[in-house]
């Protein structure tokens, strides 16, 4: 009897131990699955913007974007012709007149525009005075002021074998290897590349507040762009969802101590007493870029100007953009900034650059479009960062 009880007790203990072992195995297995899923999730959602509540797709910050272009050699299959005044074949791409990058009505970069910055073998040329600033802005002399700013160039070899670089747009580091900019700097409607036929490669100038000199008087530092990942819902007609992420061939941290910008994903509070957030009307912002000034010339230094955010209702007022452009109102993915009287604004060449909250320096917008520059009742329109992620 005692032996049977001991045997029974032993069997029960073995059963309990077996049960415990099974639970431990299941926990270990679950842990492996969760770690695997977490790793996969981290990859998939790296810089990834998901569907908004309205079910409209918003900008992908993902290396797995469904629409991308390899930024590589110029196409050799174009059927258009090259004129004597420009080294590029032209093709019909962007037609929107409000975009703030250097493209003309045929989509070709205005590479021969007087006083546009062109760099030949590292030496700037075609840069003429006077050059003052972003419209009613102030020059930036220290790279530490906005350490995340880049200038985007297209480069090619001329008939003498010189490397020629043409300034295109601005952008911001969002990681040591990824840059946020505007889609219209790289794509026309339907994410057709508007740079492939014009340049051998695209590059970013880093750690510099001058287009003719690197940080602290050093030589200019360029990093080639490997890929441009555009938002599949980018609309080249009304510039809705105007955002693109660039992946560089190597991390900028190999060159300098890059400090990525902080993106304002949500309505962050900036004043507890006033319950103010970074996206509230009249919240002051900096718009930063290398674009043209009030005289129409590119600036020598990086410049920044201070502008207030305005409401969507104000931006869509009958005096501003009433159903403009082309019958489409200001969308929920856009944000407006500026003064009713005009006078201070981003302009051509500032596209892709940041709109930063003046209190926190968090990026709330991407320079996108506007009618003219600094005109009365014509506010600057920016891609709204918070609408890129639900």
Automatic annotation (TrEMBL):
Biological processes annotated in GO: proteolysis
Keywords from the named record: Disulfide bond, Hydrolase, Membrane, Protease, Secreted, Serine protease, Transmembrane, Transmembrane helix
Disordered, as annotated region: 1-34
InterPro entries: Peptidase_S1_PA, Peptidase_S1_PA_chymotrypsin, Peptidase_S1A, Serine_Proteases_S1, Trypsin_dom, TRYPSIN_HIS, TRYPSIN_SER
Composition bias, Basic residues: 21-30
Gene Ontology cellular component annotations, sorted alphabetically: extracellular space
Record localization: Secreted
Entry's transmembrane regions: 43-65
Domain Peptidase S1: 134-390
N-terminal signal peptide: none
GO MF entries: serine-type endopeptidase activity
Positions in coiled-coil regions: none
Annotated protein name in UniProt: Female reproductive tract protease GLEANR_897
Organism: Bathycoccus prasinos
């Amino acid at each position: 009897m005692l032996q049977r009880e001991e045997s029974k007790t032993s069997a029960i203990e073995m059963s309990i131990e077996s049960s415990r072992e099974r639970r431990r195995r299941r926990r270990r297995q679950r842990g492996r699955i969760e770690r695997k899923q977490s790793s996969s999730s981290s990859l998939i959602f790296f810089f990834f913007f998901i569907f908004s509540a309205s079910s409209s797709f918003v900008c992908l910050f993902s290396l797995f974007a469904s629409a991308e272009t390899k930024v590589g050699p110029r196409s050799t299959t174009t059927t258009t012709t090259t004129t004597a005044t420009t080294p590029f074949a032209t093709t019909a791409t962007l037609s929107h007149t409000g975009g703030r990058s250097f493209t003309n009505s045929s989509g070709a970069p205005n590479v021969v525009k007087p006083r546009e910055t062109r760099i030949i073998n590292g030496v700037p040329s075609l840069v003429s005075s006077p050059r003052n600033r972003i419209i009613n802005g102030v020059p930036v002399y220290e790279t530490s002021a906005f350490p995340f700013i880049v200038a985007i160039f297209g480069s090619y070899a001329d008939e003498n074998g010189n490397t020629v670089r043409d300034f295109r747009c601005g952008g911001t580091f969002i990681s040591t290897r990824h840059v946020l900019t505007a889609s219209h700097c790289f794509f026309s409607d339907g994410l057709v590349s508007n740079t492939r036929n014009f340049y051998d490669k695209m590059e970013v100038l880093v750690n510099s507040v001058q287009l003719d000199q690197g940080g602290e008087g050093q030589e200019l530092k360029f990093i080639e762009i490997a890929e441009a990942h555009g938002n599949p819902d980018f609309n080249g007609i009304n510039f809705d969802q105007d955002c693109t992420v660039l992946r560089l061939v190597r991390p900028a941290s190999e060159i300098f101590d890059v400090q990525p910008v902080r993106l304002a994903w949500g309505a962050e509070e900036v004043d507890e007493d006033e319950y103010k957030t970074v996206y509230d009307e009249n919240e002051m912002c900096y718009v930063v870029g290398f674009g043209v000034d009030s005289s129409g010339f590119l600036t020598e230094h990086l410049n920044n100007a201070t502008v207030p955010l305005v409401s969507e209702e104000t931006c869509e007022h009958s005096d501003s953009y009433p159903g403009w452009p082309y019958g489409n109102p200001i969308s929920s993915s856009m944000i407006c900034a500026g003064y009713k009287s005009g006078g201070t604004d981003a302009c051509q060449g500032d596209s892709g650059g940041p709109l930063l909250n003046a209190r926190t320096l968090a990026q709330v917008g991407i320079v996108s479009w506007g009618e003219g520059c600094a005109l009365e009742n014509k506010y600057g329109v920016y891609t709204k960062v918070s609408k890129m992620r639900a």
